[in-house]
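Colleagues,

For the teaching module next term, I've prepared a clean inverse folding example: a structure given as tokens, and then the sequence designed for it. I'd like students to try predicting residues themselves before seeing the answer, so please don't circulate the second half yet.
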């Protein structure tokens, strides 16, 4: 697909987009691949793959440390990627963009630098039952270490947050609310703006886990007024091993470094060390340079396609998939929130999720099965696992038809 031409499209040219993704052109077990595991990781367009390869062929060098040409070129491209990221989520400054290894590392950075440095016993952190383990376990560790109090927003049978319960959990002791924008297990879209506004009214800061949301909806961190926002490259068609922590500059400025090493310092001596300025004081060691540059190429690709059109396309696919899958005898959709996106989790009476996933794979359909690193959600619904089909901009009705046909066959075999 011509990226410049894509900006003129009001609707997606899905077949043109699919042609840009080499992995989608293969067959699995003699069937065309229907890749519906995008909630775990997205495929990469040729432009991203070529950008990473081109970097290693021509510009491979360390950043911020060399005066030779290759190092200067690598540094320029790395910092240009920071600017691309800033624009993509509308941060106020490049200094508010911290590159990490992923969403997990970004959340842990907040836990260990912001929370550990400033919170005291009895201070409260609120999370929701919808959270990925990455947004639960760091707070549990600090609960044990610092004496924090962890509170949990419950959900209802549709997989929606109990908003009145959330409001009742807020108190003068609430210091941080850490919530996902889009549930990876159910597809539930949380009422993020209300959550942020009510948290701020109570005097708390807000960390948003945007790993699932950022590939499916436009994100404007200034409009949201969130204090921190975490995301991963590989969820939005970029390389693995790259993530971002956005933080308001005033907060990041006051936070101590989390890790020590090269590039996060300005002066080191045995009489004392002076730390580097933002954003570098949080980027110890050699970063995933090629990955960051590839991530910027992915953001350019998504921007050219247009997230508004992507969201509309995926909404239509989800509605079609839900209607077709519900025709299968014994199938139950898990997570039926009024506001949801891109994810269809289901179970089949009498069938184990792993068996479903294996049989679908034999028919060329790639889905995810298990607890999706969201075991509290599974516990709430009384399940050990679900099968999860998650959609992206390159999926089409043929992929959904393959999912439905394969699931019908699996259901017949397993019941």
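(Answer key — instructors only)
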């Amino acid at each position: 697909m011509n990226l410049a031409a894509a900006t003129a499209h009001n609707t997606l040219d899905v077949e043109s987009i699919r042609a840009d993704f080499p992995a989608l052109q293969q067959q699995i077990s003699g069937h065309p691949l229907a890749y519906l595991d995008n909630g775990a990781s997205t495929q990469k367009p040729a432009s991203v793959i070529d950008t990473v390869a081109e970097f290693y062929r021509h510009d491979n060098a360390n950043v911020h440390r060399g005066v030779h040409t290759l190092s200067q070129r690598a540094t320029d491209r790395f910092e240009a990627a920071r600017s691309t990221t800033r624009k993509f989520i509308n941060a106020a400054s490049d200094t508010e963009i911290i590159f990490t290894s992923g969403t997990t590392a970004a959340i842990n950075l907040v836990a260990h630098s912001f929370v550990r440095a400033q919170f005291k016993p009895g201070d409260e952190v609120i999370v929701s039952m919808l959270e990925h383990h990455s947004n639960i376990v760091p707070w549990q560790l600090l609960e044990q270490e610092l004496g924090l109090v962890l509170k949990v927003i419950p959900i209802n049978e549709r997989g929606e947050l109990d908003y009145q319960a959330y409001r009742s959990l807020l108190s003068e002791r609430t210091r941080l609310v850490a919530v996902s924008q889009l549930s990876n297990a159910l597809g539930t879209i949380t009422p993020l703006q209300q959550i942020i506004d009510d948290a701020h009214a109570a005097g708390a800061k807000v960390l948003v886990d945007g790993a699932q949301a950022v590939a499916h909806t436009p994100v404007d961190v200034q409009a949201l007024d969130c204090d921190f926002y975490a995301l991963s490259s590989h969820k939005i068609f970029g390389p693995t091993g790259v993530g971002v922590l956005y933080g308001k500059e005033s907060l990041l400025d006051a936070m101590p470094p989390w890790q020590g090493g090269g590039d996060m310092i300005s002066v080191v001596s045995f009489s004392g060390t002076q730390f580097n300025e933002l954003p570098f004081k949080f980027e110890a060691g050699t970063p995933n340079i090629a990955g960051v540059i590839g991530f910027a190429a992915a953001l350019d690709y998504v921007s050219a396609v247009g997230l508004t059109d992507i969201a509309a396309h995926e909404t239509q696919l989800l509605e079609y998939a839900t209607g077709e899958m519900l025709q299968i005898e014994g199938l139950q959709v898990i997570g039926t929130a009024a506001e949801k996106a891109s994810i269809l989790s289901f179970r089949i009476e009498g069938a184990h999720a792993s068996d479903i996933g294996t049989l679908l794979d034999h028919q060329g359909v790639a889905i995810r099965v298990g607890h999706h690193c969201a075991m509290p959600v599974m516990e709430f619904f009384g399940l050990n696992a679900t099968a999860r089909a998650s959609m992206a901009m390159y999926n089409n009705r043929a992929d959904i038809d393959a999912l439905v046909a394969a699931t019908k066959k699996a259901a017949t075999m397993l019941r």
